[in-house]
Structures are given as structure tokens and as C-alpha cells.
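> @MW can you paste both from yesterday?
MW: sure, first one:
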Amino acid sequence: MAELVDALVSNTNTSRCTGSSPVLGTFFPLNMKRIVVKVGSNVLTTNKGKLDITRLSSLVDQIAWMREHGYEVILVSSGAVACGRQELHVEQDLDSVEQRQLFSAMGQVKLVNLYYDLFREYGLHIGQVLTMKSNFETGEQYRNQQACIQLMLDNGVIPVVNENDTVSLTGLMFTDNDELSGLIAQMMKADALILLSNINGIYTGDPRDPKSQLITTVRPADNLDQYIQTSKSTAGRGGMESKYHTARTIAASGIPVIIANGNKNDILPQLLTSPDSIPHTEFTIL
């Protein structure tokens, strides 16, 4: 067991490339151009469950930096339900589906408007993509969605993707936006997927325990089931278990994945220019 932990937590990326071109790490393609960035509710909300405008603005600043440095970015963003809860106090009792439908319908408007205003300061355009799980089944809907997102990218528009909670009922929902971001990465043949969480990555135990160590590199043959915490975010539907399974699936399909702390300042530029300086978990394809 000790040998396994030592192998997992040791940073094997000692030969990371240097130079002026932004790179993630040894296992990430040097000609990387298209990146899917997923940001969860636990990053975009405060401890009181309200939308964190400062963090949202910081995320936009970082994506604008990525665009300036030649990257195509597809943003998969949670936060609509949190936005909706801020706008309306409901007197009557609503079940979980009704709450998601009501608050997401209201909150998505506010969330996209915030993104619109913030990206406009950089002269960048965004386009909203609300999708459902059925849109990822092979067929016309899949091809139409793929063509629409590609058209946005070809015209310099940043797709902002979220689940259409107004029509996605329990049996038809994505597990969470981690799953959605992975499907988008595969659909659009992304060069990398970055999952932003509120912790640095996957640990050998409870991240709050000083004895726990960050697992920096996960190769295809590595099985981390024994280390995965099953608790979920209080603000959203996901958790580290979901991120782990999404990362393993997407890496196995040939797309490298990083889990990193979205609450750290300039996390995206740091991952792309000096990955050794910032703690994260990297799922390699080799």
C-alpha cells in the first residue's frame, strides 16, 4: 500500500517542456488548441450559497487570457440554480425537480447576462448552449449540436454550456456537469478537459487531513477507488467521485484531464504556463 501511495503522489513530470509556448505537462499535446473548462457550483458560489461575482469575474479574466494566447475555449458552467435562488423567495413547498426547474429558468438568464457583460469588456462574444442527455445520442440532434458549437468556435464565439434543467427531469438528467463536460469534450474533439473544483485534486484521504497527500498523476492503469470521497457538493450535484469517473473515462478516450482548484487566483494561466508551480491532479493518456 505504501509503495502504491508513493508512486501516485510522486510528481513524475520532471521533464516538463520549457520555453515561451504555454504547455500543461509532459502528457499534454504541445500543439493543444481546444480546451473544455468546467466550473462547478462549489467554485462559483459563496459559503452561503450565493453567486460569487468576484470569482465569476476572475474566471472570465482567465478565459480572456486563454483566448489572447490562442486557445479555443468551451465553458461548461454551473451556477444557474444558485442565481435563481437569489432572485426569488418561494412561499410554497416545492419538490427538488420543481425547485431546479424554477430556479434554473430564472437563474440562467442572470448567469448568462453576467457572462455577457464581463466578456464584453474584453470584446469577446459568448453563445448559450442549453442541452439534454438525449442530445448526445447518435443522430440528427447530436450532429446539429456539434455543428452549432463548431460554428461558434469558427466565428470566435465562446460557447457557454449548461444542462437545460427546465426539461431535463430525473430520469433524463446528466449525473452532473462533470459528465456533461466530458461528453462535450468528446463531441468537440477537445485537446484537454479541465475540471475546476474547490480543492486541489484527488487526495489519498480527506483533503482536510494534514496526513493526506495529493495524487499528482493518474495513469490509465491506476485505480483510485479506495481514495475517492463519496460526499457531494452542497451547492451542486457533483463531487470528487463524479470528477474521478469522468476524468478516467475521458482520459481513456484519448483526452487528457486535469482536476484543479478553481478558487486559486489565475489557476488556468498557471496550469498552462507553469504547471509545476500549482498543485493539481493530472489524468494522462499514456
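MW: second:
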Amino acid sequence: MQGQNKEDLTLLYDSFIINYFGFLSLYALDNTGYIRIYANNERDVQLEQINKNNHSEAFFLKEAFDSGILKSYIARDMARILYKIKSDRNSEYQVDEEETRNNISGILYWNSKTSYRVREILYKFHSGDITIQEISYLIWRLSMLKSYKPLCYDIVEIIKKGHYYDKFEDNKYFQI
């Protein structure tokens, strides 16, 4: 994290959180729809093998690890979760909310380095105020803000192609 300016660091934190947790959220919302097709298009998600050709959730996980944002054991656990999802042909894997909350604790300085809106989403999930599925709705709402649109692009594309916005109900937890 040394040598990076504050804006670049916040951008990396936000990109990682939006893409990784957005992906997990959509998978938890419906692991049989379009997200299944998207997930099965990628296999190499072992931390050492991830590169710029991977999907954004894996790519930003690797970038976060390389930048020192994630503790090594947390990055490996997050990569293991991606591997389980992407190698699960029968849609049997279920995202474990408690494990996901524990992994958030391994993201160094997330409560001070992320932008306010992303921090609010992660805090509400970490504290148990919202479920993993609700994260995707909040990212969908966040993508409507011009400054977040590029960060949310891949997740929004999955939401559109999978018609996940049909599953979203009016959410009382977060107002943009």
C-alpha cells in the first residue's frame, strides 16, 4: 500500500469490494441462472494464476492481494471460494454468510480506505443488517451514480443479462 496515492487506493478498494462481493451476492441470489453460465466460463482462479484475462471479481482479488490490502490467508480463502463456485457444475455450492463476514475482517483498513458509499454497503453486511443477496441490489443502485458506473460495469452487465433486477425488491436499508 506504500507509494499509492489516496485516490488510487480508494479506487482499488472500491473496485475489489464491488466486484468480488457483487459476484458472491449475485451467486447467492440465484446460483442457477446467468451467473452460472458466467462463472463456468472461467477456471483458473488459483491466486497465483489470476491475471488480467480473468473476470473482474478474480482480477481485483489478485490486485488487492498484490497491493497488500488483503492478508494472505484471507486472499487464499476468497480465491478458494471463487474456485468452488466456478468449478461447481451442479449449482450445489452455497455462499456462507458467516464465512464471508469473517473474510471482511481480513480486508485491511476497509473501514477507512473505501469510499463512503461502498463502506456503508460493506458495514451493513458485516454487522448483519443486510444479507449477502442484498449487496447486489445496493451495487445496482450505486451504479446509477456517475462516479461509480465504471467500477460497477461488470456486475451491472451480469445483472442485466441475467435479469436479476426482476428479483430486487424495494430495499429499505440504503438510500443513494
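> thanks! Confidence is low (pLDDT under 50) at residues 171-176.
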